[in-house]
């Protein structure tokens, strides 16, 4: 627990001077203290003490969160967990965490580092499917944003599109900005029923996911529909998942910036142990905020790292299940 507290303070400082050194330190800690990760390394005949470079750190397949308890400490330290979304018959992931307070504070700091204080927003969260089940990390984050906004107008909406539209109209002249945070299929449903215009301070942010409720669409098509319906010049996006405690944000065009706790590495889709530079592949993520579980994850998303350090999410690998919190196939 002392290690967790010490590491969390480094995260909250917002100034990680040497990402590589901190990630290597965390790798050696987790290779000793995470039983599942340790067994995975042993199965690959890898010796953690021989790994001295960031690029040599092995990534744990994210599917392990569906079948194993991924923790880097005593079980009694993990009283909480978040679970992933999934359509009927899908096996869901579970992420055990040591502190809800850490996750919520970290999520707020990441959002505010891009968009400024939540006190400057009304937060309207359109999250059907997530609100219909327990244990969603996205709902927990949105609830925290709603609380931190301090606005009596902030709140959740399930399928009450008419009420949400009326709330948007009521806030049109408000000096505060409006954050409309929604799962993609629900934003499209809202856009089909109502058209907004003249909202100078409206920020529309999609979290990805059709949840089997609409046909898949490419990102450009989705954003075109939403920009015209809401009268905005761009659609913002949030990239996160149950198995991560950090989020990345796109302020338009589907291009994401890594927060200070995250590093994106692209791997060869035909060789999961080889990384590629300058071309698309599957996404590996280093998330230092996962110091309590596993910070080195091999995801089932496809993407590309851009020359300026940003990254683009291109879709899902063909053999992976459809999940919420992933962006649309591009």
Please provide a written account of the structure.
The chain has 330 residues and is of the alpha/beta class. The chain folds into two domains: 2-94 and 258-316, Luciferase, Domain 3 (Luciferase, domain 3, Roll); 101-250, Rossmann fold. It is built from nine helices and 15 strands. The protein has helices at residues 2-13, 19-33, 35-43, 64-67, 100-115, 137-149, 161-170, 184-193, 219-230, and strands spanning 60-61, 80-83, 94-97, 121-126, 155-157, 177-182, 202-206, 236-239, 248-250, 255-257, 262-268, 271-275, 281-287, 296-305, 311-316. Strands 1, 4, 5, 6, 7, 8, 9, 10, 11, 12, 13, 14 and 15 form a 13-stranded mixed sheet that branches. A two-stranded antiparallel ribbon has the order 2-3. The N and C termini lie far apart (42 Å). Residues 19-329 form the Acyl-protein synthetase LuxE domain. InterPro entries: ANL_N_sf, LuxE. It comes from Cyclobacterium xiamenense.
Protein traits:
single chain, Luciferase, domain 3, 9 helices, globular, Rossmann fold, alpha/beta, 13-stranded mixed β-sheet, 23% strand, disordered C terminus, 330 residues, 2 domains, 31% helix, two-stranded antiparallel ribbon
- Radius of gyration, rounded? 20 Å
Q: Let me know the number of strands.
A: 15
Looking at this structure, what is the CATH superfamily of the largest domain?
Luciferase, Domain 3
Order of helices and strands: HHHEHEEHEHEHEHEHEEEEEEEE
CATH arch. level architecture of the largest domain: Roll
Level of helix content? 25-40%
**Sheet of most strands:** 13 strands, mixed
Instruction: Using the coordinates shown, work out and report the CATH topology of the largest domain.
Output: Luciferase, domain 3
Distance between termini?
42 Å
